[in-house]
TrEMBL record:
Gene Ontology cellular component list: plasma membrane
SS bond list: C41-C369, C239-C253, C392-C397
Known EC number: 3.1.3.62, 3.1.3.80
Protein name: Multiple inositol polyphosphate phosphatase 1
Gene3D superfamilies assigned: Phosphoglycerate mutase-like
Chief site of localization: membrane
Catalytic activity: 1D-myo-inositol 1,2,5,6-tetrakisphosphate + H2O = 1D-myo-inositol 1,2,6-trisphosphate + phosphate; 1D-myo-inositol 1,2,4,5,6-pentakisphosphate + H2O = 1D-myo-inositol 1,2,5,6-tetrakisphosphate + phosphate; (2R)-2,3-bisphosphoglycerate + H2O = (2R)-2-phosphoglycerate + phosphate; 1D-myo-inositol hexakisphosphate + H2O = 1D-myo-inositol 1,2,4,5,6-pentakisphosphate + phosphate
Top-level taxon of the source organism: Eukaryota
CDD domains, per the entry: HP_HAP_like
Keywords linked to the UniProt accession: Cell membrane, Disulfide bond, Glycoprotein, Hydrolase, Membrane, Signal
Keyword Phosphoprotein on entry: no
Keyword Lipoprotein: no
Amino acid sequence: MLLVFVLLVGLALAEEGWLSRHLGSKSPYPTPEAEPLWVTCPLVQVHLVARHGTRYPSEGDTASFDDLYTIFAKLSKQPKYGWLHNWTNIYKEAVPTSLSSQGELDMYQLAQRMSAKYNAVLKSISFEADSISMLSSETTRASRSASAFALGLLEGRGELGPSRLKTLALNTLPRRMDTFMAVKYACDYWLEVVQNNDFRDKQMELYGERHLNETLMRFWHDLGLRLEPTDLTQIYRLCAYEIAFRNQSNTWCTFLTRHDIATLEYLDDLEDYYTYSYGNPFNLIMGCELWQNLITSMQETVTLDAPLAATFKFGHAETIQFLATLLHIFQDDEPLLADTPPQVIRHRKYKGSQLTPFGANVIFEVYQCAKTAKDTHVRLLVNERTIRIPGCEADVCTLEQLKAIRKDALGCKLKDICTMKKVESRQVAIQWKHDL
């Protein structure tokens, strides 16, 4: 009997682990095993670009969760769904899209891991000399994420209170001027053209028609519920929040099969793919000023006697998306479409669950054997896992090579690009060539 119980618990944990990796941009952060530093040359600089931690749903999502409960409440008489008796919509108790306590913990723990890993750099710097730069978008969830991160990073390194804290200056930019962390709001062309994408909407509609009807029929046949496709997407989203906030996969997630989850995950990815990534070639340049800023800081390890030791930037899921797209990471050989074959969908590289979970991050480690660009090396980590940058010959790339890979993005002026009267923009489904 004990063996059966242990097996059931093990299966439940395995299922929850699988779910957590397939919930799109609302996935909880997948804390990885620590990766050792590169040992060939000393580490001299670290750069972090992070998404904010776990946040509360939007006002619209929260209202839709109430609507779902109204539809499903009658099932509470069935033993399998008895949990509906006690379920409450906790998400309307806070300001919509605000950072949650779990989100604060996401950032604090990330900082603790980075503090331990990069201790050699942090312990050797003078904080009074402004050797660390911190920046966030103007949203409170991003700035609070930065604050929680600073607590974890500097705990034990100062003299404030029993935890020996230290302070760091945090800079923010007004939304319409922020070409680093909230860049979409600073780009009129993106707001007017890329965001309003008929081709994206058609692909999502076609995919939904082909793959969600079976699930809708199952809800009607098994539960007597007539649902719309939007109800399924909201169940998927509520399932994600239940895991992110309550660590519970035994409530709303139980209405969805693995096949349902995978289908809804791809539908979610189609939306982000065409809105923030490779689905529109214009997105290849949206991260150019952020990239230019990072390269400038890396170059200063060669040109300055006392360059910054670290930069920490906090933004949003699209911040990570635009930067990843500029670097061509997680890019598939063919565009993602409604009729993409199932085996290609299963093995696709582009997955929001892996790229932009809550607390997602991109880290650049800068190593230096000598103060020249060819002797300065950079390693990229996405969510604390090493990723080879396309165009680099190895996981660690020379600064010289890195600058050459997207040299076209250096010197860009996003304001000029975004205010052009006419911008050449082709649907990537028609011509799959990245020449921007």
